[in-house]
Amino acid sequence: MDTDRKGTRQQRLMEQFAAQRYISIEDIARRFSVTTQTARRDIMELERQGQVRRLHGGAMLANSVEPGELRRRRVTNSLAKDRIGARVADLVEDGASVFLDTGTTCEAVARALVVRENLRVVSYSLRIAAFLREVTDFTIAIPGGFVRQVDGGVFQEQARSFISGFKFDLAILSVSGIDEDGDLGDDDEAEVESVRTAMQHSSRVLLAADGSKFGYRGLVRLGSIGDVDTIVTDRPPPPGIAALAKQAGVDLHLG
């Protein structure tokens, strides 16, 4: 009977995750009239099944980006992303320690970085790490954890702690959008937390974003345009965003 109740509760819990993406431990306990210890055990079991991943104080769906959406992103503006990647590679010095974000734009950056030498790269993208391992002799580090099937991202609750153990010459990131207020946004809270940690441990921050990201508002705020040192894009940003970047002293490079 207890097993049946647990199975029904976890099924209902997954329905809530599908609707909300992120749910706190306290919210789970309150909604299902269980203790926080039981809520944590449910989350741990669902994480072992690869359905969710734990975050500080709660959990979210393991796949926050649908497979079809990611395939669309890989073909959308692919030539622009390749140009952006090549321009980013021009700005990376041989021997640098680099944090490289996940996503299709950063995958293009990884492909372009093969022209560099002796890089030390930290990424939570298994796709990027596997590619660089095959074609370079870079030193590559990734966190342990569950592999997100949709894009090869590797996540765990301690990802921020893993990243904070490094110091980077350059953090290269991508975002879902840069809105009219100059806020950088993404659609995955866990990724935002990891990237924010990398930014805090890096001497310079470079944002690689194609022009389609301008004017789009991501679900989770990463920071502001003034938190980056350099933006590499394929076309000039709209006047309002360009003015904010100039006011913040951000270097703009077109690929």
Automatic annotation (TrEMBL):
**Does the record bear Hydrolase in its keywords?**
no
Q: Tell me the first and last residues of the signal peptide.
A: none
Report any Pfam family annotated for this entry.
DeoRC
Where's the HTH deoR-type domain? 6-61
GO MF: DNA-binding transcription factor activity
* Entry-linked PANTHER family: GLYCEROL-3-PHOSPHATE REGULON REPRESSOR (PTHR30363:SF4), HTH-TYPE TRANSCRIPTIONAL REGULATOR SRLR-RELATED (PTHR30363)
Protein's recorded name: DeoR family glycerol-3-phosphate regulon repressor
Q: Which organism is it from?
A: Sagittula marina
